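Journal club prep — side note

Before the paper discussion, L.F. wants everyone to see what a predicted structure for a comparable chain looks like in token form. Sequence:
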Amino acid sequence: MIRAMPDHSREDLIRSILKACDILHSFRYEGELLRLKDIVSRTSIGKSTAHRMLRSLERGGMLKRVGAESFTPAFRPMVRQRPRLGLATQATDSTFSMAVAESIRRVAAANDVELFAVNNRYSAKVALRNAEHLIRERVAVVLEFQTYENVAPIIAARFAEAGIPLIAIEIPHPGAIYFGANNYQAGLLGGRALGKWALQHWDGRPDEILLLEERVAGPLPRSRVTGMLAGLRETLPEAERVPVATYNGRGQFLHSQEVVRRHLKRNPRRRVLVMANNDPSALGALRAFEEAGRANLCAVMGQNAIAEAREEMRRPGSQMVGSVAYFPERYGDELIPLALSLIAGKPTPPAVYTKHQLVTPSNVNQIYPLDDCTI
């Protein structure tokens, strides 16, 4: 008689050991630091049970306590997983955003980092949906690039509740590490240069100053326009008495072109200094002046020094007198190491500012020599 072997698949399992294994497996990288709420999020084990198990595993020498709240493995994980980062890009039709995303992808691939990317499509609603999607994917760190100030606190709070560190690109998010422009300083650089241009070409006597903002981004990004006005007045004190017109260009070529087009129809022909929060707005304003036959009556300063602005500055006779470069093609070189430092629990700064440099028709080929080969 053959006796059936007992099925131990259920009876011999000890649930507490399985849960302890889940906790140990929740550490994905050697040296990773996790808090109690991170463990609960990754394992779905109850908070009180997870707390007791963490203390037991620490007592048993499987985990080390770091500081008051964090734990790290006391052993090398049996399976070393690739770091997995979330990337929420701004849009697919923005030259600046595409350069940022491409640089992040390049550096991530070079460092064997898995990148889970979503596209915010320049929409607050889409950005919120994407945040939930990244949380479900349990990425280790999120690189967030979205413009809308009004949803930034909501997005930041949701990542914080999920225990996912957040790096905010260009637009500040509460509690996140900020990575991007030193907006006011970048503005000063452009404003001072425009003031010097006006002294050389218009004897320091503009008739009007035109500012183009992107209001949905909030006060910090808007400070680059404030900085430009301050830099202009610093270099050109007479500009204090020059009338200023301010419009919401939305950071977009077509909208900026339209608002400037309407402005020119309502106002007489006069010399205008244009300062825009980014290059699409600056180029839209320039085209509106050209349409009206007033190209020689404007001088335009942009921000970002994107490829289209650099091409415009190479055009003979262009009134695009400069743009402040942010070098988005280099963002990944700093963002990926910053994200990996967060994963490893290393100290990180609250803000990392990008390098800025003034680009003009006289130096564009020196700063971006490879552009000239493709034009």
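L.F.'s comment for the group: The longest strand covers residues 298-304. Keep this in mind when we get to the figures.
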